[in-house]
Inverse folding.
């Protein structure tokens, strides 16, 4: 599949590498496609990756991954025509000092994304763990869990497959408004990692009887 990733930082580059290894074609939307960091990333991935402006990335594919800092998301989305695109929102709507979430309870970052990206099919995922776990989601031989929520049932099949392609156990968590739960859940991972001393090398896993 063709996948456009807006942002080529920790999360964007990690997801892009992993999907390219699975045979997907990646287009990174970045501010400076000719800088050393971006060129190194493209060379590292090889044939299945390219980079350009956000507009070029959005034109490349119907699947758009938002891997940008929360604060820049409205500006990027409002400048684009995203109708009918599948958007996978990996952001956490963090306050600028990363101490908590900017919104919640009666809406969510993902629902704001759906308002800004008019007509798009928006999904929340990948926000509940660190980027190192996206590079390797396997612990003790078993996939760790990744929740996905969104309203469009046909597009959700594609998103769940892409989450599985990264190596996660993809869990359908329900409609987009479930992001009101999934975003604080992401904040829980951040809190445990940075405030409670668990560090970054752990993840949530589903066990069943
Ligand atoms: N880090 C994690 O483990 C993790 C896990 C789950 C979810 N998330 C979420 O994923 C998102 C990305 O996190 P990250 O760790 O990948 O961040 P990051 O490494 O800082 O990368 C952010 C990317 O956004 C670009 N960017 C920054 N400001 C921009 C602007 N004004 N306009 C356009 N592009 C801009 C950066 O480009 P430049 O290189 O040009 O600055 C970079 O490519 C965040 O919302 C975060 O909350 C992060």
């Amino acid at each position: 599949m063709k996948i456009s990733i807006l942002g080529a930082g920790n999360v964007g580059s990690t997801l892009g590498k992993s999907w390219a290894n699975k045979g997907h074609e990646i287009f990174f939307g970045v501010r400076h496609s000719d800088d050393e960091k971006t060129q190194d990333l493209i060379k590292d991935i090889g044939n299945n990756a390219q980079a350009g402006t956000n507009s070029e990335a959005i034109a490349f594919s119907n699947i758009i991954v938002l891997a940008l800092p929360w604060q820049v998301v409205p500006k990027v989305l409002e400048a684009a025509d995203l109708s009918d695109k599948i958007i996978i929102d990996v952001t956490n709507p963090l306050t600028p000092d990363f101490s908590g979430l900017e919104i919640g309870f009666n809406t969510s970052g993902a629902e704001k994304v759906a308002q800004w990206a008019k007509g798009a099919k928006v999904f929340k995922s990948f926000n509940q763990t660190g980027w190192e776990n996206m590079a390797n989601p396997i612990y003790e031989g078993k996939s760790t869990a990744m929740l996905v929520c969104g309203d469009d049932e046909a597009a959700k099949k594609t998103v769940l497959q892409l989450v599985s392609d990264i190596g996660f156990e993809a869990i359908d968590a329900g409609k987009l408004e479930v992001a009101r739960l999934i975003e604080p859940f992401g904040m829980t991972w951040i809190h445990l990692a940075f405030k409670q001393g668990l560090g970054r090398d752990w993840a949530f896993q589903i066990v069943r009887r």
